[in-house]
Amino acid sequence: MHGIKPRPIDLLPLPQGLGVSTLPDGTAVGRFLRADLSSVFQPLIESGSGRCVGHEAFVRAHGGGERDIAPWNLFSLVANDDMLVSLDRLCRIVHVLNFLRVPDVSGRLFLNVQGRLLAAVREDHGHTFRQAIDRLELDPGRIVIETPEAANLDRKLLALVLSNYRLNGFRVAANTLGLADLESLLLMVRPDFVKIDARQVRTPEAMRRVVAMTGESGTRPIFTRIESTEQLSFLQALPDVLLQGWAIARPSASPDCRLPHNRSFP
User: Fold this and answer.
1) Exposed e or buried b per residue across 178-188, where buried means at least 16 C-beta atoms within 10 angstroms of its C-beta
2) CB 178 within 8 A of CB 201
3) How many angstroms separate the CA atoms of 94 and 30, rounded?
4) 73-80 long-range CB contacts below 8 Å, 24 or more apart?
5) Looking at the domain assignment, is residue 149 inside a domain?
6) CATH of the domain at 172
7) What's the structural domain count of the chain?
8) How far apart are the C-alpha atoms of 180 and 78, rounded to whole Å?
9) Is the pTM of the predicted complex or chain greater than 0.85?
10) Which residue range forms the structural domain that includes residue 167?
11) Which residue of 39, 83, 133, 242 pairs with 98 in a disulfide if CB–CB is 3.0 to 4.6 A?
């Protein structure tokens, strides 16, 4: 698979002003108007073992020169729904190409979808993206599509979106904002993963409650934004959870499961 150079421009039907190019080192770069789009990856580890199980990809946008553009600002520039959908798909394709350029890359790839896209795509979420994934010969089951917290405000739409992505072979994750949000979400929607900000469940009792609720629903919890060694030490002791945050590793330009040399896990 890695010996075949894909033709990124053919992977998705992109409107004028959007495209993908490849740098000499093989890095894929998206082009949106005057901005260059690149990828960074942050690892997720398993509690207890500390084993790296995948990476979440984030977009980085650069304007003229070295000036960075905040991703939220990039998407806010797009008023047209069709262009928004194309930009969101372009970011995901760039991430997949940069994920695959690493020889023998393992684990899952977590990809965010922009909140406005959920309503902009009327039906069959994930069908067009699945076609691109098939051309790259990547198992769609290794990709986890993440929805933002705002998507939880419309649970019927969220359930439809997650069902569509699952029917197209992807795994799904929903971001939540705390215990109350998580509890009501799991009553109606049962994603493969739920991501919860560790800063929103600060007490040991709250963290254990997350594990209990998700275990009952067959959903695996991911604690994110872990920023202190104290948080990390406690969460490492919880059973069967995934962990993500700067206390583990900062995002880097390439998916890499070799964690910082000064970080060790029991």
Assistant:
1) ebebbeebbee
2) yes
3) 6
4) 74/32, 74/35, 75/114, 75/116, 77/33
5) yes
6) 3.20.20.450
7) 1
8) 33
9) yes
10) 40-57+80-243
11) 39
pLDDT digits (tens, 9 = 90+) for 207-264: 888 999 998 889 999 999 999 888 898 898 888 899 999 999 999 998 887 765 445 4
Euclidean distance between the first and the last CA atom of the chain, given in angstroms as a whole number: 35
Which amino acid is located at 33 in the chain?
L
Does residue 182 fall inside a structural domain?
yes
Is residue 5 assigned to a domain?
no
Phi, psi (rounded to 5 degrees) for 112: -85, 150
Q: Do 3 and 208 meet the contact criterion of CB atoms below 8 Å apart?
A: no
Report the C-alpha gap between 7 and 259 in whole angstroms: 32
pLDDT tens readout for residues 102-140: 888 889 999 998 777 676 666 667 888 898 899 888 999
Does residue 24 fall inside a structural domain?
no
Q: Which amino acid is at 27?
A: T
Closest Cα partner for 222 from 60, 106, 56, 98?
A: 56
Q: How far apart, in whole angstroms, are the C-alpha atoms of residue 194 and residue 235?
A: 15
